[in-house]
# Entry
Amino acid sequence: MNLTVYLAGQIHDDWREELAKQAEERNLPLTFVGPQTDHDRSDAIGEAILGKQPSAFYRDDAASAVNNFRTEVLMKKADLVIGLFGEKYKQWNTAMDISTAITLNKPTIIVRPESLIHPLKELSNKANVTVETIEQALDVVAYIYE
Amino acid sequence: MNLTVYLAGQIHDDWREELAKQAEERNLPLTFVGPQTDHDRSDAIGEAILGKQPSAFYRDDAASAVNNFRTEVLMKKADLVIGLFGEKYKQWNTAMDISTAITLNKPTIIVRPESLIHPLKELSNKANVTVETIEQALDVVAYIYE
Amino acid sequence: MNLTVYLAGQIHDDWREELAKQAEERNLPLTFVGPQTDHDRSDAIGEAILGKQPSAFYRDDAASAVNNFRTEVLMKKADLVIGLFGEKYKQWNTAMDISTAITLNKPTIIVRPESLIHPLKELSNKANVTVETIEQALDVVAYIYE
Amino acid sequence: MNLTVYLAGQIHDDWREELAKQAEERNLPLTFVGPQTDHDRSDAIGEAILGKQPSAFYRDDAASAVNNFRTEVLMKKADLVIGLFGEKYKQWNTAMDISTAITLNKPTIIVRPESLIHPLKELSNKANVTVETIEQALDVVAYIYE
Amino acid sequence: MNLTVYLAGQIHDDWREELAKQAEERNLPLTFVGPQTDHDRSDAIGEAILGKQPSAFYRDDAASAVNNFRTEVLMKKADLVIGLFGEKYKQWNTAMDISTAITLNKPTIIVRPESLIHPLKELSNKANVTVETIEQALDVVAYIYE
Amino acid sequence: MNLTVYLAGQIHDDWREELAKQAEERNLPLTFVGPQTDHDRSDAIGEAILGKQPSAFYRDDAASAVNNFRTEVLMKKADLVIGLFGEKYKQWNTAMDISTAITLNKPTIIVRPESLIHPLKELSNKANVTVETIEQALDVVAYIYE
Amino acid sequence: MNLTVYLAGQIHDDWREELAKQAEERNLPLTFVGPQTDHDRSDAIGEAILGKQPSAFYRDDAASAVNNFRTEVLMKKADLVIGLFGEKYKQWNTAMDISTAITLNKPTIIVRPESLIHPLKELSNKANVTVETIEQALDVVAYIYE
Amino acid sequence: MNLTVYLAGQIHDDWREELAKQAEERNLPLTFVGPQTDHDRSDAIGEAILGKQPSAFYRDDAASAVNNFRTEVLMKKADLVIGLFGEKYKQWNTAMDISTAITLNKPTIIVRPESLIHPLKELSNKANVTVETIEQALDVVAYIYE
# Structure
């Protein structure tokens, strides 16, 4: 049974590739989808399609529309969601995507470092499982196939 | 027509009281609900009800369960949601509550300072309206009654 | 049994006041809600709240956000929807609101002149009832109380 | 990941074929569905199946029932919707289909010329993205696959 | 706790008045709603509002649109549905209304004579409770208040 | 694009085989599902599985549970529903299945003889299309593929 | 803000009265609803309304239909659910009602003795909050009003 | 037509293997999914992934989170649910899973021994069919393919 996994979260390191590689090593039949991970491309996509906008505010609004379109299409395809928080940045998109997933009744795993226990406590409480590493997240997914 | 408004967002100043006062001055028939705004009480509520927990992690988990219960009951009652972001703290609960509200098709207004335009761009794009002050948020709500 | 009626449609004459007056004459216990009917105010509301926008496009986008917010709040309150098309203007908002209402399973009446039968045929087919005058629309609503 | 795209909008030129051709040139794995594009066939389908109707009104009603049936079946299959407005005709079906798609939470792109910014502003505000050309619409869809 | 009860079913005798009288005698705080019970009015309502139709078929179609509008508005208000089948007539409206109510998760009671056990067996199996008299139907409703 | 069609309706002649044959002759890529068409088997299935029941009433209740289970599984798989009414029998199952399908937003076609126009008028009004022959029903479905 | 609370759970002692008394002492504006708490009446209600059944099995089936009808009507009215497990009996109705409430997104509190932690662990994990006493359950509800 | 079947229920004997073997002997095109059936693994999975917990209570909570995640992913994939109750243990998970399935409108079969008729009567009444053996459960499923 192939499952599609949406990988929400920060796009500042290669955690998605690492997770995908580990999943492949474990022979888990998973298809991964997620946001644009090229940060500059993500910020520029609105102007790339719609042309120059009048200011940073409108540039951001145009980019976010395209990014949200992508996320919406792909999250609908997902059987489950893994959302990773890192120690840096606001990461409100991650919180937004995970909260959307939970409200849509998508089974959801949060990965976050110990240092973020307190600020993420309500979101963790709503997710199915919260872990600290991507190995643990894959352990949870692998358990479906046992 | 009385409307119930859930006030999501930070609990570190008295913006809710200020907003309620202004609403009263404008004679807007609004009922406000929201999270526990006593920060210490909010963090301690799990242990206050369930007793001493084994560590900070479990203390947080117990508190978040009660806080989420409260939010869930009150947000279901809300006709619309106003969520305010400040410049400090992670405010992931605010992002979570607003994203939940949007996914539940609650009409939603975000209030955030100009400095947060970029990190909030995707969430702003999904909300109905984003403004910078609580006066503006009330302007939007007052427009319903014109 | 009081019913709330959303009055979708053009805002270029006083059909809503006329309909409300006739409903009162018939003693129908109806509460009417609807969009902003001051056309200039409707077009200007975005800038009135958010301030001057960089161009007509952004002015329109800001106004539409606030107008959609209002519509969404009020349509949720409606037990039924009456949408009126006139012979002038694009009236895509009317088509949008009626289609939204139908998709949300709100019982819906369309009022349109005979000249619009053909271009409105698919929308009419999806609505519950299509009539040509507001008297007839009220006949349909009054029938609930017989 | 193959995606099914419903192409709502006017049926007076060959924009669907053009869009499909461009999608193929870009190797996008998309399946396109949409309304009957033979305008005469679309208007005549009711009588073609049900026989001669008593007047133009009933002829239109019969045709619209079959057209709506087709749209409903195919839109349920769609992962996303692209709706194109041209400068001519009422195009209320386009507004209806896009509004239905948005209410059903289908990710939606509007294509419209600059001249229609104002009358389409509320619908644009509810769609995910609004662009001016089918190339741009495909840019948005292609972004999902980056 | 006042409950609203939709009384689906045949309109050829005064079972609704009888049921309402008995409910009043038992002091049950129930509000009853239901279809038009004047059979001629029900059949004629389409032409009464829309004017003379080209044939019996179109007369029926016009009437059914208005009747369905009424049913839809009132059934949404209902906390529970009682549907009564008699020994005469097709009563497909009754089957339709009860099936709609069950699919909408409205708690539903069927009242039918013993002679109809067999043809109604699948519908009975889907309803909450099936009884043979309106006294028994009220017994079931009264049990809510014990 | 293969579509699955649930064939609701009477099981007293071979209309399903006839319709399937015609669909094959037209090369329509349709998969047909439907109720048990062996009438005796349908009535006996409860006792066949659960053993002898105390009376005809309980025999019917046991059978209907299994029949409803089958219908529920298969209708969920259906992209559209065709329901056929004949001139004989109560056919309340047909009305029930069609009403369920419509309430679940399944696109639905009714086939019924001219003699049943009046008693089926409200159900016809809620269905997408009503025709008189299975050829016409297939015409409607074939139109999806034009 | 008055809230309606469904009290699911065993009916072998007066915990509902005790809880209601304590709520009153705390001046909590709560309305309590719940199942029939007269155990004999609950078991006999089917035969009381429908008459003597052929065996204990059918007696039970008739009673459960009426009990489920009552539960369904009242749970729909509830803003939140409190479910109490005791140390005796199977209490599958309690598990059923709580699981139904959670699946319907009703905020839910479980009350259970320490001895039942293990067998209830999955259900507890899905509920919002699990406590050991009705005082604690009221603490959770009272927190909404702080 | 391949169907996916979730097998809820006790994990203390090999009824799932037996049922799967019988399904294969009958050539039923079914895919079976279900909970972890290694009881020790199921109880230990939380600590296996998250590490040692402070007490049995937290160990149980951690395990149940992972078990619920698995169940949620797999039940969404299921076309129908078979839930088996045995004579031993609390089996509240079984009641929870079946009640969840019913509330999600999954067609559901309960298998239980005669001795459990009374305590399971309300749950049986809500399920589609209740039988006493896995052979009978497969008879019900096989009937879909007749």
